[in-house]
């Protein structure tokens, strides 16, 4: 009898009628069901709250102001689907290299074809996009970032095909949504998609090509298809510029994995016309199957088994006591530009780069200010013009009139 009781206690079997301890066979399933129910309850809570707040715009989301649009898009940018949002944004840049009207200039400037420059170019692009898409567009630093872009692109204005402005914008608007809809734990709502378009349309106005942008998201997509049918085709410069981006992705990859990673990279370019315009062959069958399968599995697991992010990400650079802006080492893409030289950041950079990169003054550990961003040869140029245009943008934001800027916000950095 004693042995039976001891065995029952050890195995969780309840033999005594007065026992109140439930067996593990009940506890474990109960905990699992409660957790999964909690995930299901919380997963969509922020989205439902956003939809309630903007319910009046459900029938006509184009009536959103760009400030309201900014609030709407923060949910998927920084909380619900940031990984595929930023991956889709990166792929928008890659796809823009298939346009034969734009890559000759990119190749001539060497910003994307010089291994010594391409890392900084990528980080500057990320910094400027964050300033404009995540930061406050009407803040002093936001206006200076937009004015800096206008100043840089005005230097090439006579050599830019006008339609490339709108095409690059279309890629940035449409590509992240395409990735999220296909692979993330939830698709974007129509409110979110239109809000992103409304916000980019405001950016286009401030960059001087808003008058070229179609009136609706659907019209923009149709315009993009027509423009690509005419201007997306292979020339050697397309491949040259794209290969430099491939090289950037492959920098930290061990030699024995390079073939595998390159095949996965090509499999991301899943539209045949784009792949042909970039000069890449079809990916191996295994890569074409594996890549979407892994992404879909990731979305399924997040949707059903992971609690939502408790607070939004905060990737914006922080102001230091010296008035300059310093990036968080956690949000570095390829090279740690503008990251303060602290022991924590040195450790983070060393760990995330697999010990291949050490934080040093080479990466401008004294931070940045928007009016200095861009190619190193432009660092000390254009400051007065940038400050002047930033002041003009303050009035432009209030009045909504006039034309500021002369170029696409990202394509010719």
What proportion of the residues is helical, as a percent range?
55-70%
Instruction: Return the domain count.
Output: 3
Largest sheet descriptor? 2 strands, antiparallel
What structural class do you assign from the helix and strand content?
Answer: mainly alpha
Strand portion: under 5%
Shape: globular
Based on DSSP secondary structure assignment, what is the total number of beta strands? 2
Any overview of this molecule?
This protein has helices at 2-11, 24-43, 45-53, 66-80, 82-96, 103-109, 115-133, 140-154, 162-183, 190-207, 217-231, 236-250, 258-268, 272-278, 285-305, 343-352, 383-399; strands at residues 318-319, 325-326. With 413 residues, it is an all-alpha fold. Helix 13 (258-268) packs across helix 15 (285-305).
List keywords for this structure.
single chain, 413 residues, mainly alpha, two-stranded antiparallel ribbon, disordered N terminus
Please specify the SSE layout and strand pairing.
Blueprint: H1 2-11, H2 24-43, H3 45-53, H4 66-80, H5 82-96, H6 103-109, H7 115-133, H8 140-154, H9 162-183, H10 190-207, H11 217-231, H12 236-250, H13 258-268, H14 272-278, H15 285-305, E1 318-319, E2 325-326, H16 343-352, H17 383-399
Antiparallel strand pairs: 1-2
Helix pairs in contact: 4-5, 4-10, 5-9, 6-12, 8-17, 9-10, 9-11, 13-15
Briefly, what is this?
The protein has 413 residues and is mainly α. It is built from 17 helices and two strands. The protein has three domains: 42 residues, no CATH class; 244 residues, no CATH class; 50 residues, no CATH class.
């Amino acid at each position: 009898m004693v042995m039976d009781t001891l065995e029952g206690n050890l195995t969780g079997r309840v033999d005594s009628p007065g026992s109140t301890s439930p067996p593990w066979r009940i506890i474990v399933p109960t905990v699992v069901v409660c957790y999964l129910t909690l995930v299901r309850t919380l997963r969509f809570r922020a989205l439902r709250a956003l939809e309630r707040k903007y319910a009046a715009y459900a029938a006509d989301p184009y009536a959103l102001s760009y400030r309201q649009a900014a609030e709407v898009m923060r949910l998927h940018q920084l909380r619900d689907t940031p990984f595929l949002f930023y991956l889709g944004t990166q792929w928008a840049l890659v796809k823009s290299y298939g346009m034969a009207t734009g890559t000759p200039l990119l190749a001539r400037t060497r910003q994307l074809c010089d291994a010594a420059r391409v890392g900084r170019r990528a980080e500057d692009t990320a910094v400027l996009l964050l300033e404009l898409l995540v930061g406050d567009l009407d803040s002093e630093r936001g206006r200076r970032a937009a004015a800096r872009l206008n100043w840089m692109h005005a230097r090439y204005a006579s050599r830019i095909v006008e339609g490339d402005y709108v095409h690059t914008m279309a890629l940035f608007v449409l590509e992240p949504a395409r990735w999220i809809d296909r692979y993330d734990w939830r698709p974007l709502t129509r409110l979110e998609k239109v809000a992103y378009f409304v916000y980019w349309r405001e950016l286009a106005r401030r960059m001087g090509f808003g008058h070229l942008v179609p009136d609706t998201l659907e019209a923009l997509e149709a315009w993009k298809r027509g423009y690509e049918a005419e201007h997306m085709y292979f020339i050697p410069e397309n491949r040259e510029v794209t290969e430099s981006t491939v090289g950037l992705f492959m920098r930290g990859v061990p030699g024995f994995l390079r073939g595998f990673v390159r095949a996965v990279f090509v499999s991301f370019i899943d539209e045949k016309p784009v792949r042909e315009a970039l000069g890449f062959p079809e990916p191996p069958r295994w890569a074409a199957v594996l890549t979407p399968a892994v992404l879909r599995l990731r979305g399924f697991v997040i949707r059903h088994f992971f609690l939502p992010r408790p607070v939004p990400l905060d990737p914006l650079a922080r102001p230091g006591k010296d008035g300059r802006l310093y990036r968080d080492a956690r949000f570095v893409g390829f090279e740690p530009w503008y990251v303060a030289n602290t022991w924590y950041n040195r450790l983070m950079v060393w760990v995330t780069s697999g010990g291949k990169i050490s934080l040093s003054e080479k990466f401008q550990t004294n931070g940045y200010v928007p009016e200095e961003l861009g190619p190193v040869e432009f660092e000390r140029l254009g400051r007065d013009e940038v400050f002047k245009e930033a002041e003009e943008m303050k009035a432009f934001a209030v009045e909504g009139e006039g034309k500021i800027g002369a170029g696409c916000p990202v394509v010719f950095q």
